[in-house]
């Protein structure tokens, strides 16, 4: 019995991939998001930095490496908002928006110790409430402008209130119109009060038993001040603030103390830290010419030359001090710096960056897999076959030449002792084209080039004015001798107009001649199928004035038979445009329009078009009676999932398949009492979308497949034309229950689409599951069919189908797939708070030898066979000789 | 229903009207203008440019709300089909019109109209398509099927209460035969007579 238990527990271990395969084809990177609060954990023995982020994550970062030691992901959006982070012996946070605030306390190892709920009565001014911890009490302060301050104190351990809320009279506190004039530097609350010109700086210790006010005319501090107050950053040890970005004012011994330290830059971030020679005033800023700068003074205004930074060793846009710690015995400080590009750096005063984290990768907007360029030797081979002219002799000579080149290159490599490096270090295409550069565009406007095999960043580029971007590949690296080019189409943050950036995805260098700032907003954009002489596909942009712009403009003559659609997400109206070249310029003509929600209000929740990389493998599928069911292979189809309020059924979800060229509705179906999820996928003739059924309180996946029927509409080989077809296909539909809540969906894509197609679902529980299309296909359960599975209403999500095995990927936002050079394999990147990359082989790796393929055995067997052949030959000849002698 | 042909100043001018009697049955009355020579020549000009013949439909609902729909066909194909088109109206379950689309039928015959006659009739077919209810995960029949299978199994168990020999005779008989044959092939040597 005991042995049986051990035996079965062994079996349980080996579901999913084998244990030794973990990390072989996949990697995961954990991120926390843009950091809001940070504090050095100096109490516990393991040195950490505790951070709270705008993604509602509380995490501990390793002081030496910057890796995430532990991480708690709170709820999304407002219930998980972190308002306070206090690190003492324990970590105290206040999360959630009013009127429900949670105050969990965690131990230094990240274990939740207790949690209690605060209920605030008045949530109308809750935006202004402030929290801090003082002497084991959690203080909540709520300013009521022009009247008083409400201060409530709670015991951090128990959550019990110290009695009633105290109301401190403070008619001087007011809400600034444009500038911030009230600031909390715990425990002091400071405001600028009075008319312009005769302003008084008023401050008050909010937690003191006796009310003590400090006041001083603002003109004593700075002449002609506007009165803009900014608190010191980085958990300053002495409460203080900066007036008008010019003077640092500290509150010491109940008095304002104006420091004799010049604020070096209007955007400089300053903090006071305890150092070896008493408190230090640290300032950091970025100089346009010199880069990141650090300067330190004593409180008396004396410059400390030991603490500085060398010129231009780091480029940190708009640095902000998050936390500072200085050594007690020597002049050495460590600064945790937040930048405008969401990166966080731990910098030592000498100018050494201990580590940097690119936290903008927690918010990826768009992903593109780019092929690497072929190596020089392969390129030479390619160019050899490219040449069409010349006789047989010439090509023979060329062959010999290139062979000589290869040989000399190999000899050279051997001589220099360099090993043939096919690893991630060389950015050249590998044999199966599995090695790519992933171009990641983040919400912060930072663009990364990432190696897909190792997950390391190859290049990074920060464009502060870029937002809402989407990537378009203009030229693949395959087009030797040109370099690849990728275009990022986004909006300019300042104007909201179009902003087109073109880069080389391998090196990350901008291509200035293809980088344009438009003076109108962009409605839709696409690339042409035809390429110009330079192998560049032109970018067509439809702007908000319904005018067409073609980049580069010389490619305008290539525009013909181009159709675009524009969908308005909030009204459900979809318009189609035909774009033509009329001899002078490309013009757009509105050809069709429809309103997917009828006359009433409607919202397009999800939309899916066919992937650019998608191919159709076969025109139909064989049935049991030896006939063929032909697929409706229209490459121009779009799937819209529309949610619409309905008087009788609450919400109605309608899925509409539209031909983008002619505007014809190809198929449609509706679901009553359902809420749409923003997930829809489309490939070939298959459509799938997800919705939540309010009636049954569950998530369902609906699939559609379009078929022409048993007869072909057009002869084989004839290209499909949307404008010439008028017949509507047969729509097969089916729905299944999904026993999970998905947050992302994608189809696997392979090079020739010969392999099975799987639906990848990212679940809110943190797993990526692959569901074979045969499990969700619309014809499942068709009567008398042997090739389809019998109908099962609930989809089984078995553990061996989880691609992310036991990893939990928090807040999965999207799945991106790309075909590899191997037909069996599809590359997948899951984005969200974490990045997870793996390979998917929907039909197993039929074109690859197994990992554990025994090369030695087969070599030994072959060698033994050869030996045996020669041995028996020798023996046989001896035997015949002997026979002859007899 | 308006189109872009032979309009003097405005972009669109009336082509005809469709009045739908009943959404359920889809019966409708179509009234359309006939095309004259001017229409045809303009259509031909469009076809030469590979242009679009655009039709604008204004749908008036019962509560007199107007919704505009656009649809286009290639003028070339419209001429080629002999001015015959298919009008598809898609109606949502609550009776609102989602789309009105025009498509050209049968483009293959290819006989381009010669502007000889004075007037041409437009050949339109009108269909009302309903956005129908999608299937829901069919748990009921699945449970029924499971139940039937279970019942079948139970029935099978009940039926099979034949006696032991009746059930397993097919295994017993070959063994018996084998034993008999082997017994016949090498008969036991006769026991030695006792002395």
TrEMBL record, chain A:
Residue ranges annotated for the EMC1 first beta-propeller domain, each copy included: 17-126
Residue ranges constituting the ER membrane protein complex subunit 1 C-terminal domain according to the UniProt record: 684-885
Keyword GTP-binding tagged: no
TM helices/strands, residue ranges: 855-876
Signal peptide: 1-16
Main location per the UniProt record: endoplasmic reticulum
Short name of any one Pfam family annotated for the protein: Beta-prop_EMC1_N
Protein's cellular compartments: Endoplasmic reticulum membrane
UniProt keyword annotations, A-Z: Endoplasmic reticulum, Glycoprotein, Membrane, Signal, Transmembrane, Transmembrane helix
GO cellular component, one term: EMC complex
Superkingdom of origin organism: Eukaryota
SUPFAM superfamilies to which the protein is assigned, alphabetical: Quinoprotein alcohol dehydrogenase-like
Quaternary structure note: Component of the ER membrane protein complex (EMC).
Family to which this protein belongs: Belongs to the EMC1 family.
Protein's name according to its UniProt entry: ER membrane protein complex subunit 1
UniProtKB/TrEMBL annotation, chain B:
Gene Ontology cellular component list: EMC complex
UniProtKB keywords: Endoplasmic reticulum, Membrane, Signal, Transmembrane, Transmembrane helix
Membrane topology per record: Single-pass type I membrane protein
Subcellular location: Endoplasmic reticulum membrane
Transmembrane regions: 168-185
Source species: Danaus plexippus plexippus
Protein name listed in UniProt: ER membrane protein complex subunit 10
Family: Belongs to the EMC10 family.
Primary localization: endoplasmic reticulum
Annotated Pfam families: ECM10
